[in-house]
Amino acid sequence: MNGRADFGEPNAEVTRPIPHIGADYIPTEEERRVFAECSDESFWFRSVPLAATSMLITQGLISKGILSSHPKYGSIPKLIFACIMGYFAGKLSYVKTCQEKFKNLENSPLGEALRSGQTRRSSPTGHYSQKSKYDSNVSAHSSFVTSPEADNIEKETLPRYEPIPFSASMNESTPTGITDHIAQVKVNKYGDTWDE
């Protein structure tokens, strides 16, 4: 099968086209509801607790003397940094949960795109990926114990990569291909010039 559905075959594979989700995509009402729900839940259940926890840990480290405070601003810069990092860590930690919510939507182009992206990653030899012309020969004959027959097949089908020889005359102190050579021009007392 060459990636197209051949209706003459009894086990022809027919797939729905993957929807294109780009910058111009307008989400459905249900998708907007899930976006808002994800934003609220990621803020209240992940970002706020992680930001508060990271600020408390940072303040504890400063008070124990493990972290130093700023001479002019005290612990404020480190606490703000810890809060920002906790906020973004909370948002990022909720991404998988939010993706699952979109995948569970029934008539959602965005959910369909996420589901089809998952099938593409989970089955590398499936419909969406092309099989290498070397896979069938190598996988059929590869084993822990190599036979002369398998070695011959590998030599015939796999491309050969020759290593590039290393020049022993090159070292770290010599430039490689870049020269600072400026042509020396000599001038005699009569004003005649020539290259050396």
From TrEMBL:
Record Pfam families: OCIA (PF07051)
Record-linked InterPro entries: OCAD1/2 (IPR040187), OCIA_dom (IPR009764)
Keyword line: Endosome
GO cellular component: endosome
Localization: Endosome
Region of interest called Disordered, as start-end residue ranges on this chain: 112-135
Segments forming domain OCIA: 24-109
Comp. bias intervals (Polar residues): 116-135
Superkingdom: Eukaryota
Subunit-structure text: Interacts with OCIAD2. Interacts with STAT3.
Family: Belongs to the OCIAD1 family.
Protein name: OCIA domain-containing protein 1
Taxonomic lineage of the native organism: Eukaryota, Metazoa, Chordata, Craniata, Vertebrata
